[in-house]
TrEMBL record:
This is F-box domain-containing protein. Gene3D superfamilies: 1.20.1280.50. Residues 13-61 form the F-box domain. InterPro entries: F-box-like_dom_sf, F-box_dom, FBD, FBL13/AtMIF1-like. Pfam families: F-box, FBD. It comes from the Eukaryota. It comes from Microthlaspi erraticum.
Length: 476
């Protein structure tokens, strides 16, 4: 008896194998698809279980690195053949998720159409079709190369969709039936000439993302949307878009400023991010820049309830050029302010305006953006502000007195004015009740040894300078 007890204690117990198939299938369906498929090698019993998973995901990046995949036709043939064979063995009548990621699908249109029709026939709830090329950087890269894949008619008639992502897929928005279950819609690398037709059929939509679209013919976005992302889209005839979104919580916009406006918004927003990096640089105020600055500042006022706000270099320069910017920005409720800045003199006043009006700020992130080659020399002054003494001011922003606890600096490289601003924050904190508790500095990756030595020395200098706030330096 004791021998049997000792033997049972020494042998590992395989509890998974004691479970019924239905539970094992539920468990492996929660795994990433590639790991789910790998379970077929465990034993003969597991060999077919993965073909009953409800989540199917085919990603070229998981089968071969990018360089090999582009240059190796045999590898692409093998990947497409693998997808076709795998679904041919699928045993269930319903699936939750079907994802397919394959760049440059030329030559595989028939197989891809069959795979999409397979997903539609299984009443898929989450459908992801991404045929974009990771090498694309702008819409110009894609306009002449996309649209190899046309969305099959069976998808337009689906009423089970809850999540739909279409990248580099040509489709007719007006052909969709009413989508009463669709909550998340993500469209990219395609034309959106009739996009308003699709939005009018998505009454339950909560998340909308439009990335790198062209001929976007949408003048109004409304409904119960909680998260809206618009990234580098070319609006038809540069039309302005109005937002009627009383439930909006997250708004992220990147691209050209076209005067978009919130006609109706939420009084409590979680996050707002604005990036006008595609706008042309300018070194002196003009009538056009003042006009844009006024519109941008008014837009900020309409989203001033955001708890996290991210600003770009262009915004920091533009907001100072309108009349009474302080009055328009008054009442910003940001508790976390992210400044994506090149820390050039023409951005200083804008930085000051935001710090002055975010009176409840608890965390400040300064993300140093590399300066591109410019026709303009770094200005000695801007709006009569001498950059050499701007950060030597005795004025203390309200948040430094009452609320700011953490400052995080990313991509610090010891550039001009970076240390000046940090010294100002540390110096101001020295004479106050202990509010600012921590300054974290992350050195920029990829610097040459000499530049790295200078940046490290400056960061260490700030350590010695700051008496109250703890300074932590993170090497690249």
């Amino acid at each position: 008896m004791n021998t049997r007890i000792m033997k049972s204690r020494s042998e590992p117990v395989d509890r998974l194998s004691n479970l019924p198939d239905v539970l094992l299938i539920t468990i492996i369906s929660l795994l990433p698809f590639r790991e789910c498929v790998s379970t077929s090698a465990l034993s003969s019993r597991w060999r077919t279980l993965c073909h009953e998973t409800t989540n199917i995901s085919f990603k070229e990046s998981e089968y071969m690195n990018r360089g090999q995949f582009v240059s190796n036709t045999d590898a692409r043939d093998s990947f497409v053949s693998y997808m076709v064979k795998w679904v041919s063995r699928f045993q269930c009548s319903v699936i939750d998720t079907f994802e397919m990621h394959l760049s440059n699908p030329v030559g595989y249109v028939g197989d891809i159409k069959n795979l999409i029709e397979f997903a539609a026939s299984r009443k898929v709830r989450k459908l992801v079709l991404d045929f974009s090329d990771p090498a694309w950087r702008t819409t110009r890269d894609a306009i002449w190369l996309y649209a190899v894949i046309h969305l099959p008619a069976c998808v337009y008639a689906l009423t089970t969709l809850e999540y739909l992502k279409l990248y580099a897929v040509e489709f007719d928005p007006s052909s969709f039936v009413s989508q009463e279950r669709l909550k998340t819609l993500s469209i990219g690398w395609t034309t959106l000439k009739e996009g308003k037709s699709l939005l009018s059929k998505c009454h339950m939509l909560e998340t909308l993302s439009m990335r790198y679209g062209w001929e976007v013919d949408i003048k109004k976005i409304e409904g119960r949307i909680r998260e809206l992302v618009i990234e580098n889209c070319n609006f038809y005839h540069k039309n302005m878009c109005s937002f009627y979104l009383p439930s909006i919580e997250i708004f992220k916009y990147a691209g050209e400023f076209l005067g978009h406006v919130f006609k109706k918004g939420n009084t409590v927003m979680k996050e707002v991010s604005l990036d006008f990096g595609v706008m042309p640089e300018y070194d002196k105020p003009t009538g056009a820049s003042r006009f844009r600055g006024s519109h941008i500042t008014r837009f900020l006022r309409s989203v001033r309830s955001a708890k996290t706000f991210t600003a770009c270099p262009y915004l920091l320069q533009a907001i100072q050029e309108c009349n009474n910017p302080g009055q328009l920005l008054d009442g910003m409720e940001a508790q976390h302010l992210v400044l994506r800045t090149r820390l050039r003199p023409k951005e200083f006043e804008g930085i000051g305006l935001l710090l002055d009006n975010c009176k409840n700020l608890e965390k400040l992130t300064i993300d140093i953006v590399p300066s591109p080659p410019s026709l303009f020399p770094m200005a000695r002054s801007y709006y009569c502000n001498d950059p050499k003494i701007f950060w030597q001011k005795s004025y203390t922003f309200p948040c430094l007195r009452t609320s700011l606890k953490v400052v995080v600096v990313r991509n610090f490289d010891g550039g001009v004015f970076q240390l000046d601003m940090l010294k100002y924050l540390a110096r101001t904190a020295k004479g106050l009740v202990r509010v600012l508790q921590r300054v974290e500095i992350y050195l920029r990756k990829g610097m040459d040894p000499n530049r790295m030595a200078v940046a490290t020395a400056q960061a260490e200098m700030l350590k010695a300078f700051s008496k109250r706030a703890k300074v932590i330096v993170h090497n690249a």
